[in-house]
Design brief:
158 residues, mainly alpha, 2 strands
Length: 158
């Protein structure tokens, strides 16, 4: 198998991966909106497995690029700089991958927002129960004990 065929296979697998993780992210968003913690936990487990798959795909792509002598180039640069024949093979896959990535980003943001809204509701509920503002910045140890929040060295001033 030559480098073009390997890259073509990697792009195809990356497109399938992005579609798979987008489906899980959609399921996670729906679970968050319905307050279904059990399905949300299952989605997170699926997501963790998919992250491992993405690392494998990325490592494979990097090794292909290294073998091509194009390790410093982006995929877009490789596709654009390819011969007309190679470009005809890779460009549709690259465009499909880019579209799948954009869809994933949109769904990811929606799921993130749904989870943040639920966390806000939980904090408001805790305020109602305790009569005190919920400590959104509280940090806990692995044993469930409160620990001092680590301080950062960044300035809060703009």
């Amino acid at each position: 198998m030559n480098h073009t065929e390997e890259l073509q296979k990697n792009l195809t697998e990356t497109c399938m991966f992005l579609k798979d993780i987008t489906a899980v992210e959609k399921e996670k968003m729906e679970a968050a909106m319905k307050n279904n913690v059990l399905i949300l936990e299952e989605c997170i487990k699926k997501e963790q497995a998919l992250v491992m798959r993405s690392r494998g795909l990325d490592q494979k792509r990097q090794s292909i690029q290294k073998a091509m002598g194009a390790e410093q180039l982006t995929l877009k640069q490789i596709v654009e700089g390819a011969s007309a024949e190679t470009k005809a093979l890779l460009l549709p896959l690259y465009q499909e991958m880019a579209a799948a990535l954009e869809e994933y980003k949109g769904v990811y943001e929606g799921a993130k927002t749904a989870i943040e809204v639920n966390l806000h509701r939980i904090n408001r509920g805790l305020e109602g129960l305790t009569g005190k503002p919920a400590e959104a910045d509280t940090v806990y140890s692995g044993h469930g004990e409160k620990v001092e929040k680590p301080r950062t060295f960044t300035s809060r001033r703009v």
